[in-house]
Amino acid sequence: MLSRMKKEYVECPIAKDRVPFLICFVCPSFIRRVKGVVHCKGEEGPSLK
Prior knowledge:
- Helix content is 24%, strand content 35%.
- It is α+β, with helices and mostly antiparallel strands and 49 residues long.
């Protein structure tokens, strides 16, 4: 399951670009992902600076 998640990319609302899902998942602004749509607080995380 982890290897599959490493290959997934999602649209990051903060970076305005496609990022790997694992980077999005560990971001402090991440809330949830429902049917491929990322819900985010919109605060910049340390991994995106």
